[in-house]
Fold this protein.
Amino acid sequence: MDAATHVLPRKTATLAAAAITLALASTTSSPAQAGTNWERSVTAIVDSGLAHASGAVHVIVTAASGGVSAAARAVTSSHGTVREPLPIVDGVAATVPAADLGVLSRQPGLRAVTLDRKGSFNSYSFDDTTTSSNFVASTGAGAAWQAGDTGQGVGVAVIDTGISPMPDTAGRVVYGPDLSGEGSLVDTYGHGTVMGSIIGGNGTDSANQSSGARTGIAPKATLVAVKTAGANGAVDVSTVLQAMSWVSAYASQFNIRVVNLSWGTPSTQDPSVDPLNYAVERLWKQGIVVVVAAGNLGPNAGTITKPGDDPTIITVGAYDDKQNTDLADDSIASWSSRGPTAQGVTKPDIVAPGRYIIAQRSFGSTIEQTYPKALYAPSYIRGSGTSEATAVTSGLVALLLQAHPTWTPDQVKNALKSTASPISGYTANNQGSGRVNLAAAMNADPGAAVQQSSPSSGLGSIENSRGGQHVTTTCNGVSTVIQGEIDVRCEPWNGSAWTGSAWTGSAWTGSAWTGSAWTGSAWTGSAWTNASWTGSAWTGGAWTGGSWQGSAWTGSAWTGSAWTGSAWTGSAWTGSAWTGSAWTGSAWTSAVYDDFDTAFWGNRPPYWKHLPGEVSEPMPGFAPAL
């Protein structure tokens, strides 16, 4: 069946809820768990939205120490009632008399008291007057909202560092596999949460701002989080390939119509043989629009990163909209990578707003600890890069596909490129066809439903695909740099095996997946075997029907030699190399690695200042001494 005809199944909400339940069940007070790694504060912060509260108020209370128990004690000591524990944020949801909020805020050990806005936000209307996100206005997304198009029902897979459970995306995140080895839903690096919020944040945490909420582009889209990197953002090419294979296997189940990949490597290996190019082209052929960052290596020519060099997919550069809708002052960001590619292909395809983007953050993440000045109250962070521009575009594609569900990836690409608005003074290798224009794309003739020829065989070198970037892990007890023709399992890379049955069969079910390698103590403890996973939500029709037991799950792709030999079920996956410090500790840190990067975090620098990766623009009539 054509992917364009699929509708997001009802079980998605159940799966998302189950995944969140898993996070709550598996988060403890242990220092190794995600909840206790989050940001701490000595003095409790009180949400400004509570200043004029009256009557009984629904709040979220988080503790600086002591977790759920400490937060609960503080609530009951302030004449409040605990509604439910929230271990993921070391706190509780509670109802407290407004008159006692002051008493609550002074309780020892608290981090913050914030308004729980989820009840009142259900009636929130999305239009240009209710958002303070300029990228919504400058791309035309607000006009789509007014027409009833919010991306609802469209699944967007975010292959990144995870998406932390946060209010702006609550209830709309489906959690795929954690391929980082951390064993947590929390985005400890902080990049993926920002991307998810730009794509589909609904602005819940900022709904009461007088200037409007900090919304994303498609505020009702479903986000499918595929976590591939942990706290340092490091990820190997082979892990990203595994993530894309998972997306392929579950595209129908979650109506995944878009993949956001705000990542790249400096490889120049010919796309006709490169494994990364092969993977994005396979997803494209499957009916999934793949949106990839151009990279932040500009302004020199020939700096497009892989797989943004692929001629088939949509490659996105960044422009600065100057926080207004005036087209006359727009410019291409100096750090946005330029074409042509090593094979002479003009790239990027389009540019989208990517400078001074405000989106929801992941509390306590590496990024916010490294760039504290980038934080924006109450729970947002400022960032700039082609990563952000890519997320903006993925959200726009979700809006397009809700309005035109039968459009193929090539039709979506054609509509966006044919209606883009060029910026004067820049070549095609700086901006592609120009600034994305959603309103025009919505009404464009997308052309015939034909498909581009996808040249990649995928049989090239995985080492060449890395472009000189490497991660370090433990192979048989020895610290090893993953380089050469091996993958992160420390096993030989077999291109022909991976490009064959691994994509044409059912990817996820033989003994290698269901056997001891995944059912040992690391996966079958109380966190996985409690009621939330063994009850009807796990063993009922939602999991035992055709979508779980059919060919999409039980075929040869995961049971063949490529995945079921010692490389998959042996010590490399079930022993300390998978569950121990080799995956979660310093073994993954490296001086050079492929990471999810952004040009800079924080305020747009003044005319006379610039940050690493950012060249400031001169004030008109003034040339500063740098």
